[in-house]
């Protein structure tokens, strides 16, 4: 069993919760980060502890740049040496070239790219001599098939795609950097249940990925000692559909 600690940003609910639970099941101690969902974070921690795992909760607004150092310090002080980070938390607000603003752009970039990079930096500096670490960045299948919707969000994910490659080269052999790019996995704020079902059924495999499918890929990459700089698309082939707009607008 693994004994290291892993920070999962946005780990209190949805895909983040499943990632926390699956990583705990394979032996990791989990720091569940949340911004404003304390009850969901407590429930995730309860589920982990009820199965014999170790989980702590940390609240932070990732738009505050000091959150990266504080998260890593809290993890190492309370859970021991930090082995990994799952950069899962994300701002996802619609804009396009006609509505993009400096505020929207900066908000997406800080939470989705800048703070994840700072987290990786803080983890790297915290590693003891001879220790290794692992990072999994959660991206998006639309990077393989871009469209003009969610412009700031998409740009921030492209930054992390580039950093996955660059940091995998630069931090080897001490830290492996990989990524998972999910397809349409859960109902979004602008979508109906009917639209979500239509979106999932339209994938080449005839069904969409579940949070468990995404978490399974994260667990693989966290432990894949010979894999770095890789992106696993968990999208049921959605990226092959060549959508001209975001899936929400094509299925509602």
Describe this structure in words.
The protein has 252 residues and is of the alpha/beta class. It has one domain: NAD(P)-binding Rossmann-like Domain (Rossmann fold). 44% of the residues lie in helices and 15% in strands. Helix 1 crosses helix 7 (211-223) and helix 4 runs parallel beside helix 5 (151-171).
Keywords:
single chain, 252 residues, alpha/beta, Rossmann fold, 7-stranded parallel sheet, 8 helices, globular
Distance between the termini: 45 Å
Number of helices: 8
Low-confidence stretches: none
Structural class designation: alpha/beta
Average pLDDT confidence is 96
Largest sheet, spatial ordering of strands: 3-2-1-4-5-6-7
| Domain module count | 1
The CATH architecture term is 3-Layer(aba) Sandwich
Based on CA inertia axes, which overall geometry fits?
Answer: globular
Count the beta strands. Answer: 7
The CATH class name reads Alpha Beta
- Percent range of helical residues: 40-55%
CATH superfamily: NAD(P)-binding Rossmann-like Domain
Strand portion, in percent? 15-25%
Radius of gyration: 17 Å
Question: In sequence order, what are the helices and strands, one letter per element?
Answer: EHEHEHEHEHEHHEH
